[in-house]
Amino acid sequence: MKRKKLRHSEYYSMQDCFDTLYAKSVSGHHFYDLTELMRSEDNIRLAYRNIKRNTGSKTAGTDKLTINDILHLTVEDVIAKVQSMF
Fold first, then answer.
1. Other Cβ atoms within 10 Å of 66 Cβ, number
2. Which residues contact 72 (CB under 8 A, 6 or more apart)?
3. pLDDT at 2 > cutoff 70
4. What is the spatial distance between Cα 74 and Cα 54, in angstroms, rounded to a whole number?
5. pLDDT single digits (tens) 36-83
6. Mind giving me the DSSP string for 16-83?
7. Are 67 and 51 in contact (CB under 8 A)?
8. CA angle at residue 45 from 57 to 19, to 5 degrees?
């Protein structure tokens, strides 16, 4: 039997949330306060994992940093840093 590969969003239990948001947006719902979702630990872990695997992560951002500038941080440090930005 072939093993089904989990998508990152499923691995971090975010897929149901994303599906719900998508369904609401299709029906015309407007969103005004998504900061709690954005600063959630699972969402930050998902974003960090996706960014690390993305080839574009080697391109400097507006802050002149690349993924290599934060790879020395633990995931917990990255989460704390991102959450402190809100």
1. 14
2. none
3. no
4. 18
5. 999 999 999 988 888 888 888 888 889 888 888 988 999 999 999 989
6. HHHHHHHHHHHTT------HHHHT-HHHHHHHHHHHHH-GGGGS--TTS--GGGTTTS-HHHHHHHHH
7. yes
8. 100
Nearest C-alpha neighbor of 45 from the set 4, 14, 85, 15: 14
pLDDT-based confidence at 11, cuts 50/70/90?
low
Structure tokens at 64: 């002149």
Residues 22 and 51: beta-carbon distance below 8 Å: no
